[in-house]
Amino acid sequence: MLALTAVAGLALGNHLLISQSTEQQLADTAAIILVGRQRVISQRVVYRALWGDAQGVTESREKWRLAHEHLKNTLFNDPEHLGRGTRLNLIASERERLLMAADTALVANGEPTPQVSAQLRSRGHAFLDLMEDTVHSFEEIAVTRLEGLQRSEVMLLGGTLLLLLIEVLFIFEPATRALRNQWQALARSAERMEFAIRGSRDGLWDWDLAADRVYFSPRWKQLLGLKEQAVGDAPHEWFNRVDTDQVDDLQERLTRLRAGHDPHLSIQLRMLHTDGQWRWMLCRAAVSRDEQGQAMRLSGSLTDISQLKAAQDELIQQAHHDRLTGLPNRERFIKELQGALRRNRDNPDDHFAVLFFDFDRFKTVNDSLGHPVGDALLISIAERFRDELRQHDIAARFGGDEFVILLNDTAGADETRLAADRLLAALALPHSLGKHTVVSTASIGVVTDGLGHTQAADVLRDADAAMYKAKAAGKNNHRFFDRQMHDAAVDRLRTENDLRTGLDTQLEVHYQPIVTLSDGRPVGFEALVRWNHPTRGLIAPDHFIPMAEETGLIVPLGARVLREACRQLAQWDRGPSLGRQPGISVNCSKRQLLDPGFTGLVRDVLDRTGLAPGRLTLEITETAVMENSEDIAEVMAQVRAMGVRLAMDDFGTGYSSLSCLHRFPINSVKMDRSFVRRMNRDASFAAVAQTIADLGLNLKLDIVAEGIEEPLQQERLRTMGCLYGQGYLFARPLSSEAATLYLQDGNHSARRAA
Ligand code: C2E
Ligand code: MG
Ligand code: MG
Questions:
Q1: Which residue is closest in CA terms to ligand 1's atom 15?
Q2: Any idea what the CATH number is for the domain that residue 376 is in?
């Protein structure tokens, strides 16, 4: 019972609220529209009077009277008055003055004198100002009420929800439905009202089709920066200000509207402002018809949407362009390339080519001269592209110094070759960047059509691969992607997939002894990975390590080798005692060292195996440490701090062998096989080998000579003062079983004789 009373009370209260609010909002909307309408009519009175059209003035007068009656009734119902009555009186007296002025103009048979015309116009303006002002004041009241309406809406929604809850509990459907309907009606009212208020801020126009005259509201003119008198009432006043490209479309759409083919019109127009700039305007229109259905007038509004358009354009530009150079970005380029692929598929004579660029020295410029200079270089490169390319070619920046060009509509490979040569020449010229002059030549990978590509991503992948070939062949060069490269790429892809799947089960670690040159006894092993491929057999590391490095697979791969090698060493420790405990050397690539988990991995492996850190040596190549030297030096220092030893692998093959000796905390140097091999035939190689051995002595580094195959090499190195060696002369890399036997054998006398 209690619930029933509550529901009934709520429903009644809300019903009153709704009817009151709906009445108010209807009155407000009507008031705004009626005042706006009177604005239009009074404007017409002025023009009709000036043309001497007494009939037109009388008609307008009648319309004005009716509209005013209506307005009075509307305002009479205004429960709070809110000063509207005062305004109404003002309007009435001002209107009388306007009509008197119109009458005076009409009395002057024929053309009214300039003074009379001027007086009439000024009356017209005074009246229009008053109306404009009135619209605004009514709007303010309406906005306040709208807020009230919206609040009531929320309250009513709350009430409805509450009732719904009660309904669920007590099943009281009809009252809930009534309340729900009322809430919906109120929501609709609020929406209508908001629309009316918003609409009144737009510029209005009203086209009398019979007279072919258009009334443009003061706000309409204001939107285009026009003074009141600057605009007549001929339709061309409008059309002349619309972008010529759009006029036909606009007129056609207006014709369709008049003919009833379209119920209303909504079109975005570029219109000329008096400041010489274009403004985007949203133009909406509707048609009014007489009883016979004949179109009498077209009326509508004009809204300035320039800011909205500018924001939209900006977003579109940002989404498709690189901020720094203004060139299209990767997404946009891929769309264009996909289009070129489609055209070529439909018409094989429609050729295209993609050029993938890499710039040498960009990184150096960025690192040494700073990012602003690096940015300036990129902008300068983009400008050269703009200068060199034809209009239908597209240059894009993918990020960093990665630029790509799409040559559309080429005559075939020869023309593409010429274009690539021309681009190389243009790019090889020095860039002058503020006070710096920089030369940064390019390497270009080219893919043409006719290679069976269907996807943009595949074209780009192959252009990238060809670019690497060009780079490897020497800079300032281009390479075309061909069948061979394609097959190699397919093969690489297959190998990569195979390695990914075989990573956990198909890798084997082999162990090559490292011995003392004086007696050939092992002091340790180098762990060397092999891939036991199910169909291709045992694969040497040179065939998969570079690919693993590029794809990042080297990180899990290297971790496996490290764990396995240390596990094996710990297992040997648990076997029969061998006297001296051997060490283990594990190769590490740059990518592994830069992996954030690397030092953690090393620590974990040592903890798990219980090995003394000094028994583990990490071999790092000189070329790896020279790139990213700062970051790598830090990792090396951390590893050294754990007590792990470091060796510089393939020493003597890089550019900066000597400088890396003092920059990095290393314990040993592995003299590259190339010196050992040629040492006995070429005096200069022997001299280098001697220098490396001397460095070891002077800097207190262990020197390990790699690739010793002949006793003479062993002897020569020993006399040079080199203590350790590794090579087929002592043992090849051995499987773990063979290495176990080798260790247990203890008889390494064959080599001891040397
Ligand atoms: P490296 O570290 O310089 O290893 C020495 C290479 O020389 C090994 O080749 C070894 O088998 C070979 N070698 C040893 N003695 C002789 C000899 O007397 N004559 C000749 N001709 N060659 C000899 P392998 O095993 O093919 O390894 C090649 C390279 O692959 C290694 O060069 C190393 O850079 C890399 N590598 C091997 N295993 C791994 C690994 O687990 N991780 C990483 N990152 N790289 C590895
Ligand atoms: Mg090595
Ligand atoms: Mg080596």
A1: 727
A2: 3.30.70.270
Q: Give dist(CA 600, CA 606) in Å, integer.
A: 10
Residues with CB under 6 A from ligand 1: 512, 528-529, 540-542, 545, 558, 561, 587-589, 619, 649-650, 673, 706-709, 726-728, 733
pLDDT at site 100: 84
Same domain membership, residue 597 and residue 586? yes
Look at residues 320, 337, 371 and tell me which one is the last residue of a structural domain.
320
- Positive or negative, the CA dihedral 64, 66, 68, 71 is negative
Ligand nearest to the CA of 541: 1
- Tell me the CATH number at 144: 1.20.120.230
Task: Provide the domain limits for residue 316.
Answer: 202-320
Q: Could you write out the DSSP letters of every residue in 32-101?
A: HHHHHHHHHHHHHHHHHHHHT-HHHHHHHHHHHHHHHHHHHHHHHT-TT-TTHHHHHHHHHHHHHHHHHH
Q: Whose CA is nearest to atom 2 of ligand 1?
A: 587
pLDDT over 50 (residue 754): no
* Domain shared by 588 and 706, yes or no: yes
What are the tens digits of pLDDT across the range 353-380?
Answer: 999 999 988 888 888 899 999 999 999 9
Tens digit of pLDDT for each residue in 497-507? 999 999 999 99
- CATH number where 296 lies: 3.30.450.20
Same domain, 507 and 612: yes
CA gap 701, 694 in Å, rounded: 10
Mutating to test ligand 1, I would choose from 620, 706, 708, 714 the residue with most ligand atoms within 8 A of its C-beta, which is 706
- Ligand nearest to the Cα of 592, by number: 1
Residue 83 pLDDT more than 50?
yes
Residue at which a domain ends, from 305, 320, 335: 320
Ligand nearest to the CA of 619: 2
Ligand 1 mutation target, pool 512, 514, 515, 528, most atoms within 8 A of CB: 528
Whether residues 314 and 333 fall in one domain: no
Ligand 1 center to residue 528 CA distance, Å?
A: 6
Q: Which of 587, 670, 677, 712 to mutate to test the pocket of ligand 1 (most atoms within 8 A of CB)?
A: 587
Tell which atom from ligand 1 comes closest to the C-alpha of 592.
44
* Res 3 pLDDT > 70: no
Q: In angstroms, what is the span from residue 732 Cα to ligand 2's centroid?
A: 14
Q: What pLDDT, on the 0 to 100 scale, is given for residue 328?
A: 94
Write the residue with the smallest CA distance to atom 38 of ligand 1.
Answer: 528
Burial of 579 (0-12, 13-18, 19+ CB in 10 A): exposed
Q: Are residues 517 and 607 in the same domain?
A: yes
The SS3 assignment for 216 reads strand
Q: Decide if 192 is inside a domain.
A: no
- Do the beta carbons of residue 445 and residue 464 sit within 8 Å? yes
Does some domain include residue 752?
no
Could you tell me if 327 and 316 lie in one domain? no
129-138, 198-207, 296-305: which has the highest mean pLDDT? 296-305
- The answer to whether position 303 is within a domain reads yes
Q: Give 665 Cα–ligand 1 centroid separation in angstroms.
A: 23
**Higher-scoring residue by pLDDT: 542, 154:** 542
> Nearest C-alpha to atom 43 of ligand 1 is from which residue?
587
Query: What's the rounded mean pLDDT across residues 241-256?
Result: 95
Q: Is residue 161 part of a domain?
A: no
What pLDDT is stored for residue 221 in this prediction?
92
Q: Are residues 379 and 474 in the same domain?
A: yes
CATH number at residue 509: 3.20.20.450
Q: How far is the CA of 618 from the centre of ligand 3 (A)?
A: 12
Structure pTM? 0.53
Structure tokens at 374: 């690096």
Q: In angstroms, what is the span from residue 524 Cα to ligand 1's centroid? A: 15
Same domain, yes or no: 295 and 348: no
Cβ(98)–Cβ(106) under 8 Å? no
What's the DSSP call for residue 477?
Answer: E
Q: How many domains does the chain have?
A: 4
The predicted-structure confidence for 581-603, as pLDDT tens digits, reads as follows 899 999 999 999 999 999 999 99
Identify each DSSP E strand in 456-582 by its residue range. Answer: 477-480, 507-516, 522-533, 537-539
